[in-house]
Specification:
By secondary structure, the protein is α+β, with helices and mostly antiparallel strands. It is 19% helix and 34% strand. It has an eight-stranded mixed sheet, sandwiched between helices. Helix 3 packs across helix 13 and helix 7 packs across helix 8. It is globular and about 65 Å long. The two termini are 19 Å apart. The mean pLDDT is 95.
């Protein structure tokens, strides 16, 4: 039985139309809502008060409309928020990690929104608060901490923050002896920095007006920032760039990459003004990552057709490509995700047969062993170490039913020590839940992994509602990890599902290749196939499936809504990348040139233009009976600009048939990550969950 719309009739905002036509490759398109893109968008990112009043008025009208349609969920949202907050240990603390004489960690105070960073003597003793995020956030509508890096002599802290949501970070230096800030303040950075060997200066990336990290500079403490030394400038706007150091404090690494090509330049940390040395010149399709190894570098690369990557070595004194030697051979189907070098060990995180594992290799003998787990689906991550000369590796483990655990692992004795298990103050019984791993048949014969979580009492007769989450871009794998928030849906009878569609690396690098550029349609078809499989297996019904995705996953939401609107009961699209063609045609936007390897370049290529035009959600909105749609965005988002969902929502309302509403909620004080602060973020999640419960008839539960 089809669920009746639960929304009361209300008049949505009327978006005026000012048609703007564009002709490319002989094709003319008309965009009637192009006016929503602020001409001064760069200025708005830095100062949201500069937004055109007409655009602001329209966005505020959208917020008023969604608030009216969701007003009857106010009590439900409060209940959801209280539940989710009750599952968080409010005064939680990380397990401090040793670095010489100190151990460093982070913690929260009761009621605190932001973390505090502390250290204490490695042998035990009193905590010393180095940075209090709540105190720094006082009086700010938005606040987000960026990177933190304590100097090797433990005397200073380099830290970054953003108070607009636009990800232009300000770098500051704190004297850890006095607790005071130095005069060294640098605006518009990429969000982090790394110290030189003498601890008297640091390297950082500077963002240009188009939000691109175009320069690496060196700042000497006490100098005027106008005199900061340019170390390297990247002139190709299609490449990302960042700078980092090594745990031995011997090298500064400048990493330059797009989604398919890498390049490294290295500088001696002891000679910060030296000329960067090129490791291997960028070659389209060649990817490599550099990892420290003392007198050598370890190199994780796809060189020579190693699609799922292999590990090579090179002498640190001359690591050019001609000197690379194979250490761990390529094995098809075993995707090496990352590596970490220690004095006596090389550790790699890899994915094999859909599951992650950690493999420890003794450098002297080449002997390897794996750290393994037994659950059907789980998440595993390396937390690493501040120290290079150590036998101890820290890693984390969780599953959809098992709270996160932190272990220290002695690589020599192979003994694992459980340091911490995530506490759920309101209680959690893993036996009350079931987690499953399904394989859904795709239309081309592939099988798509699906991770499921549901309560053991949930009937599997097709009557259960389902939240189906998907992403499927940039090779990002969505882990089957523990998520206390989704229990608020699962405890109300929902099946929570993650569709591991093509475009991620869930089944190896080929799974990513088969979901990008000319193959992008596979991502959308996989998601629809998963929805149909869940129905066929009686986990749910089409009108009870709430599809959810954010950013590139929001593009997935827009595409499947156009392709199969009857397959879903509702769509939740968070910061959705839905105006793909217009954005990829605008080379001035922050992420457009770096994104061409992922989607194609429709400026240069007619084939790429037509490929994108065939699925771009905004360009394919039709006279269809769409399910209820909820779009969410942030005004200062530099990744998915606010006008993409604003335009999409307006066009959906203009063209669709049927009575289902389209809601648009925009946070006027945040960017891509939504509200800052852990509890403010929970309020946003409570809102989306209330929408999911409302559209599936569960709002009163």
């Amino acid at each position: 039985m089809t669920l009746k719309t639960p929304f009361e009739p209300a008049q949505p905002p009327h978006a005026r139309q000012h048609p703007l036509s564009d002709t490319r490759h002989g094709v003319t398109r008309t965009d009637e809502y192009a006016w929503m893109r602020a001409e001064n968008w760069q200025e708005v990112f830095r100062d949201p008060s500069k937004l055109d009043p007409a655009i602001r008025a329209h966005l505020e009208a959208e917020n008023a409309y969604q608030a009216k349609l969701m007003a009857d969920t106010a009590d439900l949202r409060k209940a959801l928020f209280a539940e989710m907050k009750g599952r968080i240990k409010e005064d939680d603390s990380s397990v401090p990690m040793k670095d010489g004489p100190y151990a460093y960690g982070s913690s929260y105070r009761l009621g605190g929104q932001h973390p505090r960073y502390f250290r204490k003597p490695a042998g035990g003793g009193e905590e010393e608060i180095l940075l209090d995020g709540d105190r720094e956030a006082e009086g700010k509508a938005y606040f987000q901490l960026g990177g933190l890096d304590h100097s090797a002599d433990h005397k200073r802290l380099l830290w970054a923050s953003d108070d607009k949501g636009s990800e232009f970070y300000t770098l500051r230096v704190r004297d850890l002896t006095t607790g005071t800030e130095l005069a060294d303040v640098i605006e518009s950075t990429g969000g982090g920095g790394t110290w030189a060997a003498d601890n008297e200066g640091f390297f950082y990336t500077l963002l240009d007006d188009n939000h691109r990290p175009s320069k690496v500079l060196f700042h000497k403490l006490g100098d005027d920032t106008a005199n900061d030394r340019l170390i390297y400038e990247e002139t190709d706007p299609g490449f990302f760039m960042n700078v980092g150091g090594t745990r031995r404090n011997d090298w500064i690494m400048i990493s330059i990459s797009d989604h398919e090509t890498s390049e490294y330049r290295i500088v001696s940390a002891a000679n910060p003004l030296g000329t960067p040395r090129l490791v291997a010149a960028r070659e389209t399709g060649l990817q490599y990552d550099l990892e420290e190894g003392g007198d050598i570098f370890f190199i994780l690369t796809n060189e020579g057709g190693a699609k799922d990557f292999k590990i090579m070595t090179a002498p640190a004194a001359d690591p050019v490509r001609a000197n690379w030697k194979e250490l761990v051979a390529h094995q098809p189907g075993r995707l090496i995700l990352s590596i970490m070098g220690f004095k006596d060990y090389l550790v790699r995180l890899e994915r094999f047969e859909g599951l992650p594992r950690i493999v420890v290799r003794e450098r002297a003998t080449g002997e390897e062993h794996a750290i393994a787990f037994d659950e059907e689906a789980y998440s595993l991550g390396m937390a690493g170490s501040y120290e290079y000369d150590t036998d101890v590796l820290r890693f984390s483990y969780s599953s959809m039913t098992t709270p996160a655990q932190v272990f220290d692992y002695d690589m020599r004795t192979r003994e694992r020590t459980l340091l911490k298990t995530q506490e759920v103050p309101s209680g959690h019984d893993p036996a009350a839940y079931v987690t499953r791993r399904l394989m859904a048949p795709a239309e081309d014969g592939e099988t798509v992994p699906v991770s499921l979580l549901y309560h053991r009492d949930t009937p599997l007769d097709g009557s259960a509602p389902c939240l189906l989450y998907g992403y499927g871009s940039y090779g990002i794998t969505i882990p089957a990890s523990f998520n206390t928030n989704c229990l608020s849906l699962v405890d109300r009878g929902f099946v929570y599902a993650i569709a591991h569609v093509r475009g991620g690396k869930d089944k190896g690098y080929g799974w990513y290749d088969d979901g990008k550029k000319a193959h992008k349609q596979n991502t959308f078809k996989d998601f629809i196939a998963v929805a149909k499989h869940l129905v066929a297996e009686r986990y749910t019904s089409p009108d009870r499936i709430v599809a959810q995705g954010g950013s590139a996953g929001g593009m997935l939401m827009g595409a499947v809504a156009n392709m199969a609107p009857a397959a879903f009961g509702a769509i939740i699209a968070e910061v959705p990348f839905v105006d793909v063609l217009n954005t990829m045609l605008d080379a001035s936007l922050p992420l457009t040139p770096p994104e061409w390897p992922e989607w194609g370049n429709p400026i240069a290529s007619e084939e790429d233009y037509r490929t994108i035009a065939a699925y771009s959600p905004y360009d394919n909105v039709g006279a269809l009976d769409y399910p209820p749609v909820l779009a969410l965005a942030g005004l200062t988002d530099p990744r998915v600009t606010y006008w993409e969902p604003a335009k999409w929502v307006a066009r959906l309302r203009e063209r669709k048939s049927g009575d289902n509403p389209v809601l648009f909620k925009i946070n006027m004080d945040s960017g891509h990550a939504g509200a800052s602060g852990r509890f403010s973020r929970l309020e946003e999640i409570a809102y989306t969950y209330a929408f999911a419960l409302k559209v599936t008839g569960k709002a009163a539960v």
